[in-house]
Amino acid sequence: MGNVHTKVALVLILVMGIFLMRTQRTSADIFDEETISGNKFAATTLEISTRNSATFDKETSFFQLSGMKNGGFAVRGLRIKKDGKMNFHYHLSSHTNSESGNLCHVLTVSLYDKTFHQIYSGGLTSFQMDRDIDSSGLDEWIVLLALNTDLTGSSHLCNFDIVIKTYRVSADEKGGFYDKKILQNTITAN
After folding, report:
1. pLDDT digits over 33-43, tens only?
2. Which of 139, 143, 157, 162 is 20 to 30 A from 104 in CA distance terms?
3. Distance of CA 148 to CAs 89, 101, 145, 168, Å?
């Protein structure tokens, strides 16, 4: 009796196999699709670049000064450009990497917009600022670094970074969609 059931099962499998081969159907041809109107999904990019204000070339270093004197200053132009499609806020700050003779703590930085309106003025080590990229996708800055203190001793060094980090909600965000650029700086003074 078990032999008859086996033969019937084999015949059914054979008939189904022939049917599927002739109709060229597979289980992949059976699917369900739902369409929900009104929902939108968009993918975008987020990237910033720091560019030389005269040549528009991308930059990774900024101030490279040797032998700065009391009363001396240096001026550089900086463009922060939105290279992606996403709008963002950004945080500018300084980070001291190494220092000798307290030079980083006596340097001052002033930041001006393109119309020479002063946006920031203060000590280099406390430099922090939050901004929104404007609708043009371009912020242009004039940065003045100055030494207005007599230094004692023979050799002083300040190696620091200017850090530019984008953010969506808070400058302290650790994840999510962001970009970060670092401009390296080395100043020596006698």
Report:
1. 777 777 776 65
2. 139
3. 32, 15, 10, 37
Torsion of CA 96, 100, 102, 105, to 10 degrees: -20
Which residues lie below 8 Å from residue 74, measured CB to CB, with a gap of 6+? 63, 65, 68, 144, 145, 146
CA nearest 186: which of 96, 101, 65?
65
Q: Residue 175: is its pLDDT beyond 90?
A: no
| Bridge partners for 90 per DSSP | 131, 166
Cα 125–Cα 126–Cα 130 angle in degrees, nearest 5: 125
C-alpha dihedral sign at 67, 70, 72, 76:
positive
What is the set of domains in the chain, with CATH numbers?
A: 48-189 (2.60.40)
pLDDT tens, position by position, 94-149:
999 999 989 999 999 999 998 999 999 999 999 999 998 766 778 888 999 999 98
Q: Determine which helix (DSSP H) or strand (DSSP E) holds 151, and give its type and residue range.
A: none
**CB burial string 120-155: b at 16+ within 10 A, e below:** eeeebbebeeebebeeeeebbbbbebbbeeebeeee
